[in-house]
């Protein structure tokens, strides 16, 4: 897929449509990660670039490259199901809250806690890890963090357990999170 971003896109829409853009903007340009570099979400990408003395086409190119990079860190429910059916070796980690993990478990998943994390980091860096959250909205940050700690075969489940329940295992209860969770 070739990503096309219009300079007039509002930041809110950009961040919603391409979540990796937030990380990309902060990592390269120090935009949007703290009070001193924040922006109004109703501002256009072009105006944010102008305010930071940046060339909008360069910034768009960086966002596109970051998006394409992030897509390589994701795995679909269909692919994960195939891996399971084929007996591929991987660690399935639940990055939701402990309450979600206990209330709506995914078979064979382990709860991501400090002990598991430390064991993975101390073990084989070639271990394949698949992380999931509720809806996939926060998993890229966790996945990038794991990869940054040398677990290069870490993937995030697209759409999280919610998509898994819709597409693969309808025995898993679907639920909605309340605001603030």
Task: Describe the protein.
The chain is built from nine helices and five strands. It has helices spanning 11-17, 20-29, 45-51, 56-71, 77-86, 98-103, 114-122, 139-148, 160-167; strands at 74-75, 91-94, 110-111, 129-132, 154-157. It has a five-stranded parallel sheet with strand order 1-5-4-2-3. By secondary structure, the chain is an alpha/beta fold. The protein folds into two domains: 11-71, no CATH class; 74-167, 3-Layer(aba) Sandwich (Oxidized Rhodanese, domain 1). Helix 6 links the parallel strand 2 (91-94) and strand 3 (110-111). Helix 2 (20-29) crosses helix 4. It is 46% helix and 9% strand.
What are the key terms here?
single chain, 181 residues, alpha/beta, Oxidized Rhodanese, domain 1, 2 domains, 5-stranded parallel beta sheet, 9 helices, 46% helix, 9% strand, globular
List the helices and strands and how they pair.
Elements lengths: L10 H7 L2 H10 L15 H7 L4 H16 L2 E2 L1 H10 L4 E4 L3 H6 L6 E2 L2 H9 L6 E4 L6 H10 L5 E4 L2 H8 L14
Parallel strand pairs: 1-5, 2-3, 2-4, 4-5
